Structure formats: C-alpha cells, structure tokens
Amino acid sequence: ARGxxxxxxxRIYFDDEAGNAGDSTLALVPxxxxxxxxxxxxxxxxxxxxxxxxxxxxxxxxxxxx
Length: 66
Known about the structure:
- By secondary structure, this protein is mainly beta.
- The protein has one domain (1-66).
- It is built from one helix and three strands; from the N terminus they run βαββ.
- It has one helix at 24-28, and strands at 13-14, 38-41, 49-50.
- A hairpin with a 7-residue loop joins β2 and β3.
- The chain starts with 12 loop residues before the first strand and ends in a 16-residue tail after the last strand.
- 2% of the residues are buried.
C-alpha cells in the first residue's frame, strides 16, 4: 500500500489442513479474526486456493509483529 514503510508478516493456513486445530500460533488469534489467515480451496480446481490480503478495513488480514 502506498506510504507503508514497514514490512508486514502474516501466515497462511489451508482450510482442509487437519493440523490447524492444534496450531499454537493460530490459537493465539481471536476466533473471529482467524478466517483472515485461511486460504480456501477452489471447488473443482484441484490444489488451487484463494488467499486475499486486506491491508485495512473490516476484513483486515491479521499481521504479526515479529
């Protein structure tokens, strides 16, 4: 985004990954915000996923301060 001078760090989780339930980092994210970190498999497209990054607004992607 224009004017951003710092790097942003996020993570991607795949919606069909069983390990998400036990992931300690994902568990730190409030339940109502976790969806911003989850890539959704595109039906009928094989191993194709959609992951949108929102830099601001109601659906802003969770970013980590590392």
